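Today's session is about reading a structure prediction critically. Students often jump straight to the picture, but the first step is always the sequence itself: look for stretches that repeat, for charged clusters, for runs of hydrophobic residues. Only then move on to the predicted structure, which in these notes is written as discrete structure tokens rather than atom positions. Here is the chain we will use throughout the hour.
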Amino acid sequence: MKAPGFALFECAIGRCGIAWNGDGVLALSLPEARDAALRNRLLARCPDAEERPPPRDIARAIRNVERLLRGENVSFDDLTLVMDGLPPFYRRVYDAARKIPPGKTLSYGEVAKLLGSPGSARAVGQALGKNPFPIVVPCHRVLAANGKLGGFSADGGVQTKTRMLALEGVRTEPTIASDGLLFDADQAVTHLCSSDTRLARSIRKAGPFALELKKTHSVFEALAEAIVYQQLTGKAAATIYGRVREACAPGRKAVTAADVVRTSPAKLRAAGLSQAKMLALKDLAKKTVARELPTLAQLQKMQDADIVENLTRVRGVGEWTVQMLLIFRLGRPDVLPTADYGVRKGFQRLFGTPELPSPKELEARAARWSPYRSVASWYLWRVLDTATV
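Below is the predicted structure for this chain, in token form.
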């Protein structure tokens, strides 16, 4: 028998992936920040799959996904989904969700009632959180109580869910929790504990998720501080950042991009900035004044991958710096900083690997943590804190 196959393809929301065998579709994945992460998610479901051109019926399914996400009316009723190994309850949930037409939504509780189990709304949410066939099984059309968006298993989380619903004519407003996060922390922890028993033990040891978002008034302010703080202790960086503010805007608490543009390189260097950081801060200020960077309000509506692409155009701002902004400033749920030493070291200690994991190894394990890889990363940092203590 021919090995299962998989392929990546472009559509209105980004680059997606699909896996299949001779019986039908094994998995469908929504966009990730990188193709490698997308492939890892597919391979987590179908370890033996080989990347190759899709056969005729799968190619037709891909075209239908593309058409649906262009706003066309498309049916997947004739598409066979291979649900071998999935719990019977999950299969019932997916069958019920497939009957929700484009432009319509149901709550988790309403789906539970359709299944004859009115008290199983949480279980319905868990099943849809592990949905291996998004779009075909339209979990984006199932909302939390009172029309709240809830979580979503895709890069960008609720932003992707909002975008998919908007393509179908459903207008929603993302729900921001009182702590500023764009997701339910309790739901995230429940998902992580149920999907990874090893991580679950660490979560129970570390206690409740307690990430505190750091407020910022602008993208410039967040990135300027990040540039100054790179590779310095918090105390030393705070001192230098205070000197930069005083050099650029004497007597004021906040410094603007225009202030930095007007300040001479010599003054910035005298404040304690290295040559590289001075040039990076100048480039950030110049691009901000020229309106080449998105505003904070615009960032709130953008996908994670698009934010990384936009902000890493600034000199001295790499992917890791933007990922920290996504987690600690914007409260994004599904960011995995694979280059972060603390995350990698925490992973090594938790899983007992002889060496620090490579980004590929980290992404492979993290496929099961999605759509809450930011939360998993936070707990990996706690593993390192505990070990240090």
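Discussion point for the tutorial: The longest strand covers residues 14-21.
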